[in-house]
Specification:
Elements lengths: L3 E5 L11 H8 L6 H7 L2 H20 L7 H10 L3 E5 L4 H11 L5 E3 L11 H10 L6 E5 L2 H10 L2 E5 L13 E3 L5 H16 L1
Parallel strand pairs: 1-2, 1-4, 2-3, 4-5, 5-6
Helix pairs in contact: 2-3, 3-5
């Protein structure tokens, strides 16, 4: 049975809007993922890169827009009495901005300050403990391979919100959805499986 759902933030709950090309231009190098680059850099460069990232994240959080169907799915999750958590590589500051702007509430949150970031399984283990739910009974929902890798490494079920321009071949999710509302079908699937197990 499913007992809780963990949602990624950027690109999953909100439309992706962080300008990574502009961040790279300001850093002055083709760095790929800024957090990964910062972790491998000297303390001074790490601090500089994260300051640049946080400035762009703060702007993106203030301008954030929810993906279509987010309020509907969060309400459905609450109605089903499933616990819900938010897991992001963003800073807690930008998470607070997004939640405040859209009047959303998550009791369980893991941001990059809390633990080793995705794709490591650490943030899910942390949330699993906080939620008091074994990872076997959790679903990780995200829009990028790091979300799926993180979920698989931690032992959760995984759902990939697929954008037309993003095709995932490196890691296979348990479910693929094209709209966040489709999480409803995944929940219903687990309810049917659970009902069969009981009978």
């Amino acid at each position: 049975m499913l007992r809780g759902i963990i949602f990624d933030m950027d690109g999953t709950l909100t439309k992706p809007n962080v300008d990574f090309a502009a961040i790279e231009r300001e850093i002055g190098a083709k760095v790929g993922f800024i957090i990964d680059y910062a972790e491998k850099s000297s303390p001074e460069e790490r601090r500089r890169a994260l300051e640049i990232l946080e400035r762009y994240e703060a702007q993106a959080a203030m301008n954030s827009e929810l993906n279509e169907g987010v309020l509907e799915i969060l309400e459905f999750v609450s109605k089903k009495q499933l616990k819900r958590a938010l897991l992001t590589r963003n800073s807690r500051k930008s998470v607070d901005t997004v939640l405040r702007k859209h009047n959303l509430h998550f009791e369980f949150i893991a941001s990059r300050e809390d633990t080793k970031p995705k794709p490591a399984p650490d943030p899910i283990f942390l949330l699993s403990k906080k939620m008091n739910i074994h990872t076997d009974y959790l679903l990780m929902v995200g829009d990028y391979k790091y979300d799926i890798m993180c979920g698989k490494a931690a032992g959760t079920k995984t759902a990939l919100l697929r954008y037309k321009e993003y095709v995932e071949t490196e890691v296979i999710p348990d479910f693929e959805i094209s709209n966040i509302r489709e999480v409803i079908h995944i929940i219903e699937h687990f309810e049917k499986v659970g009902a069969k197990a009981v009978t």
